[in-house]
Specification:
This protein is an alpha+beta fold. The protein has 2 domains: 78 residues, no CATH class; 74 residues, Actin, Chain A, domain 4. It has a 3-stranded antiparallel beta sheet with strand order 3-4-5. A two-stranded parallel ribbon has the order 1-2. A two-stranded antiparallel ribbon has the order 6-7. The longest helix is centred in the middle third of the chain and has 20 residues. It is globular and about 60 Å long. The two termini are 36 Å apart.
């Protein structure tokens, strides 16, 4: 097996993976950067960027394809991962419920967990629609609000801005907006 790993993995991470695979009896032939492994075979030559979003960080990798694909540089932003985005989005949705209905889904663990569990579905719907009708049950009542794509974008802005900054560093210029 060849294992695809993020570029920020050091010797300790790789050693841990090797130890686990040895215990499982899985022979490892080597490691390859995750960004290289993710690129499809048929792409045009030139500059390629790979964004990898982890739980507690994201990584932007600059690849270049000329005669062969090569990893040029990788930058990582610790503390700006999926968990930070999810927390910001859950907080924003909860604030919208409180503002609109006075119902606070973060007041009880069960409704907070339900909100986290439903977040992937919310994101999927907001990819297709600029706004959605969203309801939650609290006690014996059903509460509803309208969620907008802009609300989640604004509350994820610090992470998106850091992504934009790192992309700019890798490209030599900072893009206007994603």
């Amino acid at each position: 097996m060849v294992v695809a790993v993020p570029s920020f993995y050091g010797r300790d991470h790789l050693g841990l993976i090797l130890g686990i695979t040895q215990e499982l009896g899985i022979p490892v032939k080597g490691f390859v950067p995750l960004a290289l492994a993710a690129v499809p075979e048929r792409l045009p030559e030139g500059l390629l960027l790979h964004l990898d979003l982890h739980l507690h960080r994201f990584e932007v990798t600059r690849l270049e394809r000329q005669e062969r694909l090569s990893l040029k540089e990788s930058l990582s932003s610790e503390g700006n991962g999926l968990s930070k985005l999810y927390r910001a989005w859950v907080d924003a949705i909860a604030e919208e419920f409180v503002r609109s209905t006075r119902f606070d889904p973060l007041h009880q663990a069960a409704t907070e967990q339900a909100l986290y569990d439903r977040l992937p579905g919310i994101l999927k719907q907001l990819c297709l629609n600029p706004s959605i009708y969203f309801e939650m049950t609290g006690g014996s009542k059903v509460y509803h609000i309208t969620l907008t794509r802009d609300l989640l974008y604004q509350n994820g802005a610090p992470v998106f801005e850091e992504m934009r900054r790192l992309v700019g560093r890798l490209c030599g210029r900072i893009p206007e907006r994603f």
